[in-house]
Design brief:
- This protein is of the alpha/beta class.
- It has 2 domains: 238 residues, P-loop containing nucleotide triphosphate hydrolases (Rossmann fold); 160 residues, P-loop containing nucleotide triphosphate hydrolases (Rossmann fold), CATH 3.40.50.300.
- The protein is 33% helix and 16% strand.
- It contains 14 helices and 15 strands.
- The strands form 2 sheets. A 9-stranded mixed beta sheet has the order 1-5-6-4-7-8-3-9-2, sandwiched between helices. Strands 10-15-14-11-13-12 form a 6-stranded parallel beta sheet, sandwiched between helices.
- It binds adenosine-5'-triphosphate (ATP).
- The site of adenosine-5'-triphosphate has 18 residues, from helix 1 and helix 4.
- It is found in: Cytoplasm; Nucleus.
Length: 446
C-alpha cells in the first residue's frame, strides 16, 4: 500500500490542530458541541468496537432478492492480501453492521447502500474494505471517491485504508484536502481519493485531476456531520451530478434526522437501507441524588464534603460553561486536589490526551463541560456530579444531555451514582427517566 507524502499535509493525527484553536478562550457561554470535532475525538480515543446488542434492520431495494449476510471475512472471497490486512488489524469477524453491509457493498451488479449506525460500530472499516476490494490496481486512474466532512476526518479514514491495505502495495490513495496541491492538468493515478467536498469538487471540475465519469464507487461518510456544515451538502450534490448512473453510491451516518434522510435520498437512488439502533442506556443501576444549594460557593462546599467519595473510584463533574469549570478547578486546586480538566478550549488532540490520562487513572476526578457528555467510556467512573444541571439554549432542562452525562457511570451493569447540585432559585425537579419511554422523556423538556 502506498500513500503519498503531501505538500503541507501531515497524515499524522497528532499534528492536527483546529484552525481556530488559538481563538478559544474562556467564555460564559455554554460549551458548544462541534459534531465534527466530537466525531474525531471519538475516533481518536476509541480502542475497539462499541458494543450493541440490537438487531440490524435491513430494507432491500429489491425485496425479492435473497439477503446475504456473512459471519466470517473468508465468506467475502477477498483478495488474500486484503484479508491479511483485515486480520492484521485484529478483526476476527465482521461487526454487526459489517455482516450485512459488506456483502451488499461487494455484490455484483453493484448495489447502493444507506447505512445508519452509531459511531464505533464499524462503518469506516466496512467502506474502507469495500473500496480496497473494489479497485482494479491495473487501471491507473481514480475509481473510488470518498467524501468526508473535515480534513482531519478524511485523514482518519485514510489511516484505516492504509492500515487495511498494508499488504496491497499496488493500491494507491490520495488526499483531496486543503494544502495538497497538484499541478494543473495532472491526472490522478491513485485508485482511491479521500477528501473534503470542496477540494474534491475542484479536483473533479476546476483542475480536472479526476474524471468523475470513471468513478465507480462514491462514498459519503458522516452525512449528518456533512450537512451540518454550510455548503457541504451543495458541493457533495455537485460532485454527485458529475458521476455516471452506474456509479455505486454508499452513504453512512450515525444519526438519521429528516434532513439527513432527505439528503441521502437525493444522492443514493434505489438504496438498500441498513439501520442499527443505538443501544439504550439503562439507568436501573444508577442511583440518583440531589443536593439543594443556594449558589456556586454552596455547591463547592457540598462537593468538598463529597470529595472522599469521589476518589474511591473515579468521578466526572459536569459544569455548564468553561468559565464555571475553570472557577471550580481553581477552587479544587486551592484545596489541594489534583483534577483533570476537559473543555472546548482544548484542541481535539489535547482532549484525547486528557481522556487517555483519566482512563489510565492518572487523575481520579475529571471536571468537564458538555464537550464530553458522550463519547467517553471509562469503566471505573462510578460517580457523576452535575455541578450544573444541563440546560438547552433557552434554559430548559436538557434531558437528553442529562441522560448522556449520567450514562457515563454505571457502565456494563456496575453500580453508579449521580449527584445533582440544584440551585434552589431554579429548584428543578429531578425525576427518574425511563429511556424506553420516549413520551416521558419528551414531556420532561416541557
Ligand atoms: N470487525 C471488527 N472487529 C474488531 N474491531 C473492529 C471491526 N471493525 C471495526 N473495528 C474497530 O472498531 C472501532 C470502530 O470502528 P469504525 O471506526 O469502523 O466505526 P464507525 O462506525 O465508522 O465509527 P466512527 O464513524 O466514529 O469512526 C475501530 O477501533 C475499529 O478498528
Amino acid at each position: 500500500m502506498h500513500s503519498r507524502s503531501l505538500d503541507g499535509v501531515s497524515t499524522c493525527a497528532g499534528n492536527l490542530v483546529p484552525e481556530n484553536a488559538g481563538d478559544r478562550d474562556l467564555t460564559g457561554e455554554a460549551d458548544k458541541v462541534n459534531l465534527a470535532e466530537e466525531s474525531l475525538l471519538n475516533k481518536m480515543i476509541r480502542h475497539a468496537l462499541v458494543r450493541n446488542r440490537n438487531q440490524v434492520e435491513v430494507l432491500q431495494a429489491d425485496p425479492t432478492s435473497p439477503l446475504y449476510s456473512v459471519k466470517t471475512f473468508e465468506e467475502l472471497r477477498l483478495k488474500p492480501e486484503l484479508l491479511e490486512g483485515v486480520y492484521k488489524m485484529g478483526f476476527n469477524r465482521p461487526s454487526k453492521i459489517q455482516e450485512c453491509a459488506l456483502p451488499m457493498m461487494l455484490a455484483q451488479p453493484p448495489q447502493n447502500l444507506i447505512a445508519q449506525a452509531q459511531s464505533g460500530t464499524g462503518k469506516t472499516a466496512a467502506f474502507s474494505l469495500a473500496m480496497l476490494s473494489h479497485v482494479n490496481p491495473a487501471n491507473k486512474w481514480t475509481q473510488c471517491l470518498c467524501v468526508s466532512p473535515t480534513y482531519e476526518l478524511a485523514l482518519q479514514i485514510g489511516k484505516v485504508i492504509e492500515q487495511m491495505g498494508k499488504f496491497c502495495p499496488d493500491v494507491k490513495v490520495q488526499y483531496a484536502v486543503r494544502g495538497n496541491r497538484l499541478q494543473r492538468g495532472v491526472q490522478l493515478q491513485d485508485h482511491i481519493a479521500i477528501g473534503t467536498p470542496g477540494t474534491l469538487l475542484d479536483w473533479c471540475t476546476k483542475y480536472k485531476h479526476i474524471d468523475p465519469k470513471k468513478i465507480t464507487m462514491f462514498v459519503l461518510d458522516e452525512a449528518d456531520v456533512m450537512i451540518a456544515t454550510q455548503g457541504h451538502q451543495d458541493q457533495s450534490l455537485r460532485i454527485y451530478r458529475q458521476l455516471t448512473k452506474d456509479c455505486q453510491m454508499l452513504l453512512f451516518s450515525a444519526t438519521f434526522e429528516d434532513s439527513v434522510w432527505r439528503f441521502a435520498e437525493r444522492v443514493v437512488p434505489d438504496p438498500n437501507i441498513i439501520k442499527l439502533k443505538r443501544e439504550e442506556e439503562t439507568l436501573d443501576n444508577i442511583k440518583q441524588f440531589y443536593v439543594a444549594c443556594k449558589d456556586k460557593e454552596a455547591k463547592f462546599t457540598a462537593l468538598c464534603d463529597l470529595y472522599g467519595c469521589l476518589t474511591i473510584a473515579q468521578a466526572m463533574i459536569f459544569c455548564h460553561t468553561r468559565k464555571m469549570a475553570s472557577w471550580l478547578v481553581d477552587q479544587l486546586y486551592r484545596e489541594g486536589h489534583q483534577v483533570a480538566v476537559l473543555s472546548g478550549q482544548l484542541t481535539v488532540e489535547q482532549r484525547a490526551a486528557v481522556i487517555e490520562r483519566f482512563r489510565n487513572g492518572k487523575e481520579k476526578v475529571l471536571v468537564t463541560t458538555n464537550v464530553c457528555s458522550r463519547g467517553i467510556d471509562v469503566e471505573q467512573v462510578s460517580l457523576v456530579v452535575n455541578f450544573d444541571l444541563p440546560v438547552d439554549l433557552e434554559g430548559n432542562a436538557d434531558s437528553e444531555t442529562y441522560l448522556h452525562r449520567i450514562g457515563r457511570t454505571g457502565r456494563f451493569g456496575r453500580q453508579g451514582f449521580a449527584v445533582n447540585m440544584v440551585d434552589s432559585k431554579h429548584n428543578r425537579k429531578i425525576r427518574k427517566l425511563d429511556t424506553q419511554n420516549l413520551e416521558e422523556m419528551e414531556s420532561l423538556s416541557t
